[in-house]
């Protein structure tokens, strides 16, 4: 049975889960740059990438996963040229947060995201080895 994965460090989900664990596969729900106060971090695409990807990684770690367990990432962007212009800084942020391993990826342009000030949303899939898998307790918050 699929198990919701909702780290206490992330905003309390309402009508969704930050992740869903099914067997050894963790489906990572879309993460924007929401901070603990439920506000999109200011400063543009690089800080928003760092926050959104950090939120993805927090959910991954909650289930016992590591960045190298990511098998697929999809990045939704409201400003592709802005993302491309800051590619070096975004790549540096990735390496700081996840190391040098990159999974299969796609970048998709879109006109808007759930929060109007959000520039980026990241979803992913991870395959976590059984030896590290932690099945989170189902907690209603």
Brief synopsis:
The chain is an alpha+beta fold and 141 residues long. Helix content is 26%, strand content 26%.
Question: How would you portray this structure in words?
Answer:
- By secondary structure, this protein is α+β, with helices and mostly antiparallel strands.
- It has a single domain (3-7, 18-127), classed as RutC-like (60s Ribosomal Protein L30, Chain: A, 2-Layer Sandwich), CATH 3.30.1330.40.
- Helix content is 26%, strand content 26%.
- The chain is built from three helices and six strands, in the order βββαβααββ.
- The chain has helices at residues 45-62, 80-85, 87-98; strands spanning 3-5, 19-22, 25-31, 70-77, 104-109, 120-127.
- The protein has a six-stranded mixed sheet, covered by helices on one side.
- Helix 1 (45-62) runs parallel beside helix 3.
- It is globular, with a radius of gyration of 14 Å.
Mean pLDDT: 94
User: Given the helix and strand composition, which structural class is it?
Assistant: alpha+beta
Number of helices: 3
Radius of gyration: 14 Å
Topology:
Layout: E1 3-5, E2 19-22, E3 25-31, H1 45-62, E4 70-77, H2 80-85, H3 87-98, E5 104-109, E6 120-127
Parallel strand pairs: 4-5
Antiparallel strand pairs: 1-2, 2-3, 3-6, 4-6
Task: Name a few traits of the molecule.
141 residues; alpha+beta; 60s Ribosomal Protein L30, Chain: A; six-stranded mixed β-sheet; 3 helices; 26% helix; 26% strand
